[in-house]
Amino acid sequence: MPESKTSERKKDHIELCLQDKVSYKIKTNGFENYDFEHYAATEVEFDKIDLSTEIFGRKISLPFMISCMTGGTSEAKKINEKLALAANILNIPIGVGSQRQALESKKHYSSYRAVINNAGKVPVLGNIGAAQVAMSKNPADQIKLLIDLIEADAMVVHLNPLQELLQNEGEPDFNGLLKNLEIICKNSPVPVIAKEVGSGISKKAAKKLLDAGVKGIDVAGTGGTSWAAVELIRSGQTDTFFSEWGLPTSYCVRTVNELKSKNKFTLIASGGINNGVDVAKSLALGADLSASARIILLELMNNGSEGVVSLIKSWFLTVKKIMYLTGCNNINKLKKIELIRKGELF
Ligand SMILES: Cc1cc2nc3c(=O)[nH]c(=O)nc-3n(C[C@H](O)[C@H](O)[C@H](O)COP(=O)(O)O)c2cc1C
What we know:
Elements: H1 5-17, E1 34-35, E2 53-55, E3 58-60, E4 64-66, H2 74-90, E5 94-95, H3 100-104, H4 109-118, E6 124-129, H5 130-135, H6 139-150, E7 154-158, H7 161-166, H8 177-187, E8 192-195, H9 203-212, E9 216-218, H10 227-234, H11 240-243, H12 249-256, E10 266-270, H13 276-284, E11 289-292, H14 294-325, H15 331-336, E12 340-341
Parallel strand pairs: 4-11, 5-6, 6-7, 7-8, 8-9, 9-10, 10-11
Antiparallel strand pairs: 1-12, 2-3
Helix pairs in contact: 2-4, 2-14, 8-9, 13-14
The structure holds flavin mononucleotide.
Protein backbone atom coordinates (compact mmCIF):
# COMPACT_ATOMS: atom_id res chain seq x y z
CA MET A 1 0.00 0.00 0.00
CA PRO A 2 1.42 3.47 -0.87
CA GLU A 3 2.37 5.74 2.03
CA SER A 4 0.11 8.71 2.86
CA LYS A 5 1.16 12.27 1.97
CA THR A 6 1.91 12.95 5.64
CA SER A 7 4.21 9.90 5.82
CA GLU A 8 5.97 10.86 2.58
CA ARG A 9 6.54 14.38 3.90
CA LYS A 10 8.02 13.02 7.13
CA LYS A 11 10.43 10.89 5.09
CA ASP A 12 11.50 13.95 3.06
CA HIS A 13 12.08 15.90 6.28
CA ILE A 14 14.37 13.26 7.74
CA GLU A 15 16.36 12.96 4.50
CA LEU A 16 16.74 16.73 4.09
CA CYS A 17 17.68 17.23 7.74
CA LEU A 18 20.69 15.00 7.19
CA GLN A 19 22.11 17.71 4.88
CA ASP A 20 23.85 20.87 6.07
CA LYS A 21 21.91 22.97 3.56
CA VAL A 22 19.02 23.20 6.04
CA SER A 23 20.80 25.10 8.80
CA TYR A 24 20.75 28.88 9.29
CA LYS A 25 23.71 30.32 7.41
CA ILE A 26 23.84 33.89 8.73
CA LYS A 27 21.60 34.15 11.79
CA THR A 28 22.98 32.47 14.91
CA ASN A 29 21.44 31.43 18.21
CA GLY A 30 22.98 34.62 19.65
CA PHE A 31 24.78 32.98 22.59
CA GLU A 32 28.16 34.11 21.22
CA ASN A 33 27.19 37.61 22.38
CA TYR A 34 27.43 36.54 26.03
CA ASP A 35 30.28 35.46 28.26
CA PHE A 36 30.49 33.90 31.72
CA GLU A 37 31.81 35.90 34.65
CA HIS A 38 34.84 33.95 35.81
CA TYR A 39 34.73 33.38 39.59
CA ALA A 40 38.27 32.98 40.91
CA ALA A 41 37.19 32.22 44.49
CA THR A 42 35.30 29.01 43.55
CA GLU A 43 34.99 26.40 46.28
CA VAL A 44 32.88 24.02 44.18
CA GLU A 45 33.96 20.36 44.42
CA PHE A 46 33.95 19.25 40.77
CA ASP A 47 32.90 15.66 41.46
CA LYS A 48 29.99 16.77 43.63
CA ILE A 49 28.37 19.06 41.04
CA ASP A 50 24.69 18.09 40.80
CA LEU A 51 23.28 18.29 37.25
CA SER A 52 19.87 16.86 38.11
CA THR A 53 16.69 18.91 37.88
CA GLU A 54 12.90 18.50 37.59
CA ILE A 55 10.36 18.84 34.83
CA PHE A 56 6.68 18.94 35.80
CA GLY A 57 7.55 17.42 39.18
CA ARG A 58 9.62 14.53 37.68
CA LYS A 59 13.29 14.23 38.55
CA ILE A 60 15.65 13.95 35.57
CA SER A 61 19.44 13.58 35.51
CA LEU A 62 20.29 16.49 33.19
CA PRO A 63 18.49 19.77 32.30
CA PHE A 64 18.18 18.60 28.71
CA MET A 65 15.72 16.85 26.44
CA ILE A 66 15.74 15.20 23.02
CA SER A 67 13.46 17.45 21.04
CA CYS A 68 10.39 16.29 19.10
CA MET A 69 11.40 14.92 15.73
CA THR A 70 9.67 12.03 14.14
CA GLY A 71 6.97 9.39 13.87
CA GLY A 72 4.52 8.19 11.27
CA THR A 73 6.87 6.19 9.02
CA SER A 74 8.71 2.87 9.34
CA GLU A 75 12.06 4.69 9.28
CA ALA A 76 10.78 6.90 12.10
CA LYS A 77 10.06 3.83 14.21
CA LYS A 78 13.71 2.75 14.05
CA ILE A 79 14.90 6.28 14.83
CA ASN A 80 12.49 6.63 17.75
CA GLU A 81 13.57 3.30 19.23
CA LYS A 82 17.22 4.37 19.25
CA LEU A 83 16.56 7.91 20.47
CA ALA A 84 14.43 6.53 23.31
CA LEU A 85 17.21 4.12 24.31
CA ALA A 86 19.62 7.06 24.59
CA ALA A 87 17.07 9.07 26.61
CA ASN A 88 16.56 6.08 28.91
CA ILE A 89 20.32 5.66 29.54
CA LEU A 90 20.71 9.38 30.25
CA ASN A 91 17.43 9.64 32.21
CA ILE A 92 16.27 12.69 30.25
CA PRO A 93 12.91 13.51 28.60
CA ILE A 94 12.19 12.81 24.94
CA GLY A 95 9.51 14.08 22.57
CA VAL A 96 7.90 12.26 19.67
CA GLY A 97 7.45 13.99 16.32
CA SER A 98 4.10 15.30 15.14
CA GLN A 99 1.35 12.75 15.80
CA ARG A 100 -0.71 14.07 12.89
CA GLN A 101 -0.22 10.78 11.06
CA ALA A 102 -1.85 8.98 14.01
CA LEU A 103 -4.97 11.13 13.56
CA GLU A 104 -5.20 9.97 9.94
CA SER A 105 -4.63 6.22 10.39
CA LYS A 106 -3.53 3.56 12.85
CA LYS A 107 -0.91 2.20 10.44
CA HIS A 108 2.09 3.83 12.08
CA TYR A 109 0.95 3.89 15.73
CA SER A 110 3.93 1.66 16.53
CA SER A 111 6.37 4.33 15.28
CA TYR A 112 5.25 6.56 18.17
CA ARG A 113 4.88 3.78 20.72
CA ALA A 114 8.50 2.80 19.92
CA VAL A 115 9.41 5.67 22.23
CA ILE A 116 7.53 4.45 25.30
CA ASN A 117 8.59 0.88 24.62
CA ASN A 118 12.26 1.87 24.90
CA ALA A 119 12.35 4.99 27.09
CA GLY A 120 11.84 3.27 30.45
CA LYS A 121 10.53 5.72 33.04
CA VAL A 122 11.71 9.00 31.50
CA PRO A 123 9.11 11.71 30.73
CA VAL A 124 7.73 11.35 27.18
CA LEU A 125 6.14 14.28 25.33
CA GLY A 126 3.45 14.03 22.68
CA ASN A 127 3.31 16.43 19.74
CA ILE A 128 0.76 17.97 17.39
CA GLY A 129 0.76 20.99 15.08
CA ALA A 130 -1.02 24.31 15.52
CA ALA A 131 -2.90 23.81 12.23
CA GLN A 132 -4.45 20.54 13.48
CA VAL A 133 -5.37 22.20 16.79
CA ALA A 134 -6.86 25.25 15.10
CA MET A 135 -9.06 23.25 12.70
CA SER A 136 -10.17 20.60 15.19
CA LYS A 137 -13.90 20.34 15.87
CA ASN A 138 -13.20 18.47 19.08
CA PRO A 139 -9.77 19.51 20.35
CA ALA A 140 -10.11 18.03 23.85
CA ASP A 141 -10.87 14.50 22.57
CA GLN A 142 -8.27 14.73 19.82
CA ILE A 143 -5.52 15.58 22.30
CA LYS A 144 -6.68 12.87 24.70
CA LEU A 145 -6.31 10.27 21.93
CA LEU A 146 -2.74 11.41 21.21
CA ILE A 147 -1.80 11.50 24.90
CA ASP A 148 -3.21 8.02 25.48
CA LEU A 149 -1.44 6.59 22.41
CA ILE A 150 1.98 7.20 23.93
CA GLU A 151 1.00 7.59 27.61
CA ALA A 152 2.46 11.08 27.34
CA ASP A 153 3.65 12.97 30.40
CA ALA A 154 3.17 16.31 28.61
CA MET A 155 1.74 17.41 25.28
CA VAL A 156 3.55 19.75 22.89
CA VAL A 157 1.67 21.92 20.41
CA HIS A 158 4.11 23.13 17.76
CA LEU A 159 3.58 26.52 16.16
CA ASN A 160 5.20 26.58 12.71
CA PRO A 161 3.60 29.43 10.71
CA LEU A 162 6.68 30.02 8.54
CA GLN A 163 6.95 26.34 7.62
CA GLU A 164 3.24 26.09 6.80
CA LEU A 165 3.46 29.27 4.74
CA LEU A 166 6.31 28.03 2.56
CA GLN A 167 5.30 24.36 2.30
CA ASN A 168 3.55 23.58 -1.00
CA GLU A 169 0.87 21.56 0.77
CA GLY A 170 1.05 23.76 3.92
CA GLU A 171 -1.89 24.82 6.12
CA PRO A 172 -1.04 28.33 7.34
CA ASP A 173 -4.57 29.14 8.54
CA PHE A 174 -4.28 29.10 12.35
CA ASN A 175 -7.56 30.96 12.90
CA GLY A 176 -9.07 29.59 16.13
CA LEU A 177 -5.74 28.34 17.52
CA LEU A 178 -5.80 30.23 20.83
CA LYS A 179 -9.45 29.36 21.52
CA ASN A 180 -8.84 25.65 20.90
CA LEU A 181 -5.56 25.75 22.80
CA GLU A 182 -7.46 27.10 25.79
CA ILE A 183 -9.92 24.18 25.54
CA ILE A 184 -7.03 21.72 25.34
CA CYS A 185 -5.23 23.25 28.31
CA LYS A 186 -8.43 23.15 30.41
CA ASN A 187 -9.12 19.49 29.60
CA SER A 188 -5.69 17.93 29.18
CA PRO A 189 -4.74 15.51 31.98
CA VAL A 190 -1.08 16.47 31.40
CA PRO A 191 0.67 19.86 31.04
CA VAL A 192 0.61 21.46 27.59
CA ILE A 193 3.76 23.06 26.12
CA ALA A 194 3.79 25.50 23.20
CA LYS A 195 6.82 25.19 20.94
CA GLU A 196 8.15 26.78 17.76
CA VAL A 197 10.25 24.80 15.30
CA GLY A 198 13.11 27.25 14.68
CA SER A 199 11.71 30.78 14.21
CA GLY A 200 11.45 31.54 17.93
CA ILE A 201 8.68 32.57 20.35
CA SER A 202 8.61 36.26 21.30
CA LYS A 203 7.57 37.58 24.71
CA LYS A 204 4.34 38.90 23.12
CA ALA A 205 3.44 35.48 21.67
CA ALA A 206 4.47 33.71 24.88
CA LYS A 207 2.11 35.95 26.90
CA LYS A 208 -0.84 34.96 24.68
CA LEU A 209 0.07 31.28 24.97
CA LEU A 210 0.41 31.48 28.77
CA ASP A 211 -2.94 33.27 28.95
CA ALA A 212 -4.42 30.33 27.00
CA GLY A 213 -3.15 28.05 29.76
CA VAL A 214 0.09 26.44 28.54
CA LYS A 215 2.46 25.33 31.29
CA GLY A 216 5.60 25.40 29.19
CA ILE A 217 7.20 27.40 26.38
CA ASP A 218 9.90 25.90 24.15
CA VAL A 219 11.23 28.91 22.26
CA ALA A 220 12.93 26.94 19.42
CA GLY A 221 14.66 29.98 17.92
CA THR A 222 17.13 30.55 15.10
CA GLY A 223 20.67 29.30 14.76
CA GLY A 224 20.02 25.64 14.08
CA THR A 225 17.56 24.04 11.66
CA SER A 226 15.80 26.44 9.30
CA TRP A 227 12.42 24.95 8.42
CA ALA A 228 12.00 27.58 5.74
CA ALA A 229 15.17 26.22 4.12
CA VAL A 230 13.83 22.65 4.42
CA GLU A 231 10.55 23.51 2.68
CA LEU A 232 12.19 25.70 0.03
CA ILE A 233 14.64 22.93 -0.88
CA ARG A 234 11.75 20.43 -0.99
CA SER A 235 9.99 22.57 -3.57
CA GLY A 236 13.16 23.37 -5.54
CA GLN A 237 13.29 27.05 -4.57
CA THR A 238 15.72 29.37 -2.79
CA ASP A 239 14.93 32.49 -0.80
CA THR A 240 17.64 33.84 1.46
CA PHE A 241 15.29 36.26 3.25
CA PHE A 242 12.85 33.68 4.63
CA SER A 243 15.52 31.01 5.14
CA GLU A 244 17.05 33.41 7.68
CA TRP A 245 13.75 34.60 9.22
CA GLY A 246 13.22 34.38 12.97
CA LEU A 247 14.31 35.34 16.47
CA PRO A 248 17.60 34.08 17.95
CA THR A 249 17.17 31.50 20.70
CA SER A 250 19.12 33.60 23.25
CA TYR A 251 16.88 36.63 22.63
CA CYS A 252 13.74 34.53 23.10
CA VAL A 253 14.99 32.91 26.31
CA ARG A 254 16.06 36.24 27.83
CA THR A 255 12.83 38.07 26.98
CA VAL A 256 10.32 35.24 27.59
CA ASN A 257 12.03 34.63 30.95
CA GLU A 258 10.84 38.11 32.02
CA LEU A 259 7.29 36.67 32.12
CA LYS A 260 8.30 34.40 35.00
CA SER A 261 7.79 37.26 37.46
CA LYS A 262 4.01 36.92 36.89
CA ASN A 263 3.57 33.37 35.52
CA LYS A 264 4.73 29.92 36.65
CA PHE A 265 5.89 27.95 33.64
CA THR A 266 8.70 25.76 32.33
CA LEU A 267 10.99 27.54 29.87
CA ILE A 268 12.81 25.35 27.34
CA ALA A 269 15.68 26.68 25.21
CA SER A 270 16.03 25.05 21.81
CA GLY A 271 17.06 26.05 18.30
CA GLY A 272 20.74 25.69 17.45
CA ILE A 273 21.77 24.32 20.86
CA ASN A 274 24.82 22.48 19.57
CA ASN A 275 27.28 22.22 22.47
CA GLY A 276 27.70 22.44 26.24
CA VAL A 277 28.49 26.16 26.16
CA ASP A 278 25.13 26.87 24.47
CA VAL A 279 23.39 24.70 27.09
CA ALA A 280 25.04 26.50 30.03
CA LYS A 281 24.38 29.97 28.59
CA SER A 282 20.73 29.13 27.91
CA LEU A 283 20.25 28.05 31.53
CA ALA A 284 22.03 31.16 32.82
CA LEU A 285 19.67 33.31 30.71
CA GLY A 286 16.66 31.69 32.38
CA ALA A 287 15.84 28.38 30.68
CA ASP A 288 14.82 25.48 32.93
CA LEU A 289 16.12 23.01 30.40
CA SER A 290 17.56 23.03 26.93
CA ALA A 291 16.84 20.77 23.98
CA SER A 292 18.26 19.82 20.59
CA ALA A 293 16.95 18.10 17.48
CA ARG A 294 18.97 17.93 14.25
CA ILE A 295 22.43 17.53 15.77
CA ILE A 296 21.08 14.58 17.77
CA LEU A 297 19.57 13.02 14.64
CA LEU A 298 22.89 13.38 12.79
CA GLU A 299 24.77 11.74 15.66
CA LEU A 300 22.23 8.93 15.82
CA MET A 301 22.54 8.23 12.10
CA ASN A 302 26.36 8.19 12.31
CA ASN A 303 26.98 6.50 15.66
CA GLY A 304 23.67 5.12 16.97
CA SER A 305 22.28 5.46 20.51
CA GLU A 306 25.76 5.14 22.00
CA GLY A 307 26.96 8.11 19.96
CA VAL A 308 24.04 10.21 21.22
CA VAL A 309 24.77 9.24 24.83
CA SER A 310 28.49 10.10 24.43
CA LEU A 311 27.71 13.41 22.71
CA ILE A 312 25.33 14.60 25.42
CA LYS A 313 27.69 13.40 28.17
CA SER A 314 30.53 15.38 26.58
CA TRP A 315 28.35 18.50 26.50
CA PHE A 316 27.58 18.11 30.19
CA LEU A 317 31.24 17.66 31.05
CA THR A 318 31.67 21.15 29.56
CA VAL A 319 28.65 22.37 31.56
CA LYS A 320 30.26 21.01 34.74
CA LYS A 321 33.54 22.79 34.00
CA ILE A 322 31.62 26.04 33.47
CA MET A 323 29.75 25.48 36.75
CA TYR A 324 33.03 24.96 38.60
CA LEU A 325 34.49 28.15 37.10
CA THR A 326 31.39 30.21 37.92
CA GLY A 327 30.96 28.85 41.46
CA CYS A 328 27.77 26.79 40.91
CA ASN A 329 27.35 23.35 42.46
CA ASN A 330 23.81 22.78 41.17
CA ILE A 331 21.55 23.77 38.29
CA ASN A 332 19.49 26.23 40.34
CA LYS A 333 22.65 28.20 41.05
CA LEU A 334 23.65 28.15 37.36
CA LYS A 335 20.19 29.56 36.54
CA LYS A 336 20.88 32.52 38.83
CA ILE A 337 24.26 33.69 37.51
CA GLU A 338 24.45 36.86 35.42
CA LEU A 339 26.04 36.58 31.98
CA ILE A 340 28.17 39.44 30.67
CA ARG A 341 27.18 40.88 27.30
CA LYS A 342 30.30 40.74 25.11
CA GLY A 343 30.46 44.53 24.62
CA GLU A 344 30.61 45.12 28.39
CA LEU A 345 33.97 43.35 28.71
CA PHE A 346 36.03 46.10 27.10
C1 LIG B 1 14.00 15.65 11.32
C2 LIG B 1 13.28 16.64 12.19
C3 LIG B 1 11.90 16.53 12.34
C4 LIG B 1 11.20 17.42 13.15
N1 LIG B 1 9.86 17.25 13.36
C5 LIG B 1 9.24 17.99 14.30
C6 LIG B 1 7.90 17.70 14.68
O1 LIG B 1 7.28 16.79 14.16
N2 LIG B 1 7.33 18.48 15.65
C7 LIG B 1 8.01 19.50 16.25
O2 LIG B 1 7.48 20.15 17.16
N3 LIG B 1 9.25 19.82 15.88
C8 LIG B 1 9.89 19.09 14.93
N4 LIG B 1 11.19 19.38 14.60
C9 LIG B 1 11.78 20.63 15.09
C10 LIG B 1 12.68 20.44 16.29
O3 LIG B 1 11.98 19.89 17.38
C11 LIG B 1 13.34 21.77 16.71
O4 LIG B 1 12.38 22.65 17.24
C12 LIG B 1 14.05 22.47 15.57
O5 LIG B 1 14.63 21.56 14.67
C13 LIG B 1 15.16 23.38 16.08
O6 LIG B 1 16.10 22.67 16.83
P1 LIG B 1 17.55 22.28 16.23
O7 LIG B 1 18.16 23.56 15.76
O8 LIG B 1 18.28 21.66 17.39
O9 LIG B 1 17.33 21.32 15.12
C14 LIG B 1 11.91 18.49 13.79
C15 LIG B 1 13.29 18.60 13.64
C16 LIG B 1 13.99 17.69 12.85
C17 LIG B 1 15.47 17.86 12.70
